[in-house]
Design goal:
22 helices, 4 domains, mainly alpha, about 425 residues
Length: about 425
């Protein structure tokens, strides 16, 4: 730093400098060169010469800044973008961060604005030195460009620099930049893809302290992605996200509640799934209103050995709450009862479906076919198999007289 301080002393004959960069001459001394005037100096510096000096092996910060200053004093000279890029990066590697920030602030005077190619290496240098990028962002021309900010985030994610991307997002929030979900969704997804779900949750907590809280749709997508893992740890993380939502003033909707129930079912945690449904029933109505999807998810979470008892209880509970069962509800119950050898009850449920005006679909009939075969009911299995084949043929046939005849045959089965 002592050599840097030496550069702050203006020449004895010069007037005091009023520019942001103390090693440069004032604007009044940088008169433009008259058009067509020849360069009389035999040792004038070009942009290429400045670049060579900056990139030279063993170049010190003092030498780099001296070359920059000498070039800037030349009438009509303007540093170009490659010069600023090489100069700021060289100074950042040598931890002359204040000089970097002053140079960035000066770029607009040369008609230039810092882009991702210039700022990205600086971010990495700041991170390596343990410095937050706040000061670097403040030096960029104000207001901070959304295009530049988004490009930096994307470049960092592509290079797997997740920690730097997170630091950049938090610094942007500190500076009052409006952080949107499109800025941080890629980072959250990258953490989840790498199995670092808790890192994503921690980052969202930090972001919320800066006033940027995701909306319900974003939280719902995150919970869905977490629950796809189907593990107990994933379910724990999903419940933590719901708690975070509530702390941040976001109320989970029925889609999120149903996703939690499905996640519990996938992880084999029927008791936890039942607890979620019970909470939804206590809240009643609004965003927590139960629907057929809620109870279908609950039934799917019931272990096979408990389906005969708990499955029927869940079905009755569903009807008592005024929720209409659908073909998925009946299909799961028929499958569970069939495994237990309760074929008579399977047929009863099938008849109840028809009376309620819920036509069995192909999936339901295939489940019924499996039940009949596993219980050695060959005649019934043959009838169901014929219905499936004819129905599939009708679905594949074009809308012609042939299809009408097939559909009529299906109706008569």
């Amino acid at each position: 730093m002592r050599s840097f301080e030496l550069l702050r002393r203006p020449p004895p004959t010069a007037s005091p400098s009023r520019t942001d960069l103390p090693w440069l001459p004032t604007s009044s001394r940088r008169n433009p060169r008259p058009p067509g005037a020849a360069d009389k100096s035999s040792h004038s510096l070009s942009n290429a010469a400045v670049l060579r000096a900056v990139k030279a092996a063993g170049a010190t910060p003092r030498h780099i800044l001296s070359v920059y200053s000498a070039a800037a004093r030349q009438p009509g000279f303007r540093h170009d973008l490659p010069t600023y890029q090489a100069l700021t990066y060289a100074l950042a590697l040598r931890r002359r961060f204040r000089a970097v920030e002053l140079l960035l602030a000066r770029m607009p005077r040369d008609g230039l604005r810092p882009g991702p190619a210039l700022v990205l290496p600086l971010l990495r240098a700041y991170s390596a030195a343990g410095r937050p990028p706040d000061a670097l962002l403040r030096s960029c021309p104000s207001p901070l460009s959304d295009r530049l900010f988004s490009a930096l985030i994307q470049d960092l994610l592509r290079s797997d620099d997740l920690d730097i991307a997170g630091s950049l997002l938090l610094s942007g929030a500190n500076l009052g930049f409006s952080i949107k979900s499109r800025h941080y969704s890629g980072l959250v997804r990258a953490h989840c893809d790498r199995g670092a779900v808790w890192s994503a949750i921690e980052f969202l907590d930090l972001l919320a302290t800066r006033g940027s809280v995701p909306d319900v749709f974003f939280y719902g997508s995150l919970i869905r992605d977490i629950c796809r893992a189907g593990s107990s740890d994933a379910v724990d993380a999903a419940f933590e996200v719901v708690d975070q939502m509530k702390r941040n003033g976001r109320e989970p909707d029925v889609v999120i509640w149903n996703t939690l129930v499905h996640g519990c079912a996938k992880a084999g945690q029927w008791g936890r799934a039942e607890g979620v449904v019970a909470e939804m029933e206590r809240k009643g109505g609004g965003a927590a209103a139960t629907d057929a999807g809620t109870y279908n998810a609950l039934i799917s979470a019931i272990p096979h050995r408990q389906m005969v008892q708990d499955g029927i209880l869940a079905f009755r509970r569903m009807v008592e709450k005024g929720v209409s069962p659908d073909v998925v509800t009946f299909s799961m119950l028929i499958s569970g009862l069939g495994r237990a050898g309760r074929v008579w009850e399977c047929n009863t449920l099938l008849g109840k479906m028809v009376r309620l005006g819920i036509p069995p679909d192909i999936a339901c009939y295939k489940i019924l076919l499996s039940v009949y075969r596993s219980n050695a009911m060959n005649d019934d299995a043959s009838a169901v198999l014929l219905w499936i084949k004819v129905n599939e043929e009708a679905t594949a046939a074009p809308r012609t007289g042939k299809r009408w005849k097939i559909e009529k045959k299906v109706t008569g089965l």
